[in-house]
Amino acid sequence: MFVQMRKMVVKEGFSDQVVERFSGKGLVQQQEGFIDSTVMVKKVRRGDEEVVVLTRWESEEHWKQWEKSDAHIAGHKAKLGQPKPEYLISSEGAKYEVKAVKLPK
After folding, report:
1. Domain locations in the chain?
2. Residue 79 pLDDT
3. pLDDT for 34-61, tens place per residue?
4. Scanning 25, 50, 88, 94, which has its CA 20 to 30 A from the CA of 17?
5. What is the pLDDT of residue 23?
6. Cβ-count burial of 31 within 10 angstroms (0-12 exposed, 13-18 middle, 19+ buried)?
7. How far apart are CA 49 and CA 72, in angstroms?
C-alpha cells in the first residue's frame, strides 16, 4: 500500500473550506488502485489551523498513474496562473510506503 500525505496550514477559521474541497466527490475516486482519502483537522483552541489529507493507494504505481492521468493534469492546468488562496499559509506533501497494518481481531 502507498500513502500520499498533504499538510496545509491555514489561517484561523478557514479549515472548513479546505475540508470541503478535499472531501467532496472527485475523479480520483474512479481511479484504478484508489483505496480512500481521509481528511483530518488538528485540534487547536485558536490560531492557525492544520489540515492533513491522507490518500491511500493499492500501490505507488497506481498513484503514479493518477498523477499522469489526463483528469489530474487538467485539474491542475485549470488553476495555473491563479494566486494561492489568501488563507493558505503553507503546504507540504510526503509519500509513504505502508509496511504494516493492524486490523481488529
Report:
1. 2-93
2. 75
3. 999 999 999 988 999 999 999 999 999 9
4. 94
5. 92
6. middle
7. 27
The one-letter code for the residue type at 96 is Y
Task: Report the CATH fold assignment for 2-93.
Answer: Alpha-Beta Plaits (3.30.70)
Instruction: With beta carbons less than 8 A apart as the criterion, state whether 16 and 24 touch.
Output: no
Kindly indicate the confidence band of residue 100, based on its pLDDT and cuts at 50, 70 and 90. very high
Burial 87-97 (b: 16+ CB within 10 A, else e): bbeeeeeeeee
* Best CA proximity match to 60, nearest among 71, 50, 52, 68: 68
The one-letter amino acid code at 22 reads F
Q: Which three cell numbers stand for residue 30?
A: 474512479
Cell 475540508 locates to 19
pTM here?
0.88
Residue 96 grid coordinates? 509513504
C-alpha grid cell for residue 32? 484504478
